[in-house]
Amino acid sequence: MTDLSHDGQPQLSKHRIEALVDGIFAVAMTLLVIDLRLPEHAHVATEAALQGALVGLIPNLISWLISFFVLAIFWIANHRLYSYVRHADQGLLWLTILSLSGASLLPFASAVNGQIASTTGQMVYSGVMIWMSVSTLLVARHIHRHLGLCVHPMSIGAYRATMVRSFGVMLIATLALLIGYVAPGKANFVFVLMSTLRPLGARIERRYARAAATA
């Protein structure tokens, strides 16, 4: 029998949702490597031919590397958010599924962006990044506003830090798209800036914690 919360909504097990999250992220991260293959028409009978074929894979390799760590970052973000959750409701379930739809689409976007250096490819890739960021922000907002779902409430500092990270990814994805109009194939390097978002978020959490301690 499904338990009901105080507002009559069913209390859904967070563990089954987390298992689904883990499975989809694992599959998506594995699918990324499928695009790293030598062209079927390539002749690699010699050392020089093999080296030339591998050099031709560099754009795909860069796209794989960025996409793999982007998925890792979003998986960590989901894991962090669900650490606050005791049980889920229908709203959190569907917002999480929305987030997973973006994760499942990233291998396709990575393939498009890696194979063809074009503005359209960058638009697809950046669009999926923004999609995942918005859905992660919506998950965080739902958890922050529904205290009945939580083992312990998400602090305002943790919520603000999640907002900064999510909007930061959106800004970086938008910047990559703009650069893609000028220099297709070079814009992906902008996503290296995502490495600054974690320490920035931690700094914001510490600032709010200090403010709460002195209040």
From TrEMBL:
Swiss-Prot/TrEMBL keywords: Ion channel, Ion transport, Membrane, Potassium, Potassium channel, Potassium transport, Transmembrane, Transmembrane helix, Transport
Major subcellular site: membrane
Membrane spanning stretches: 20-38, 58-79, 91-112, 124-143, 164-183
GO CC terms in record: membrane
InterPro entries registered for this protein in UniProt: TMEM175-like
Membrane topology classification: Multi-pass membrane protein
Subcellular location as annotated: Membrane
Alphabetized GO MF terms: potassium channel activity; proton channel activity
Pfam families documented for this protein: TMEM175
Family, per entry: Belongs to the TMEM175 family.
PANTHER family given in the database record: ENDOSOMAL/LYSOSOMAL POTASSIUM CHANNEL TMEM175, ENDOSOMAL_LYSOSOMAL PROTON CHANNEL TMEM175
Protein name: DUF1211 domain-containing protein
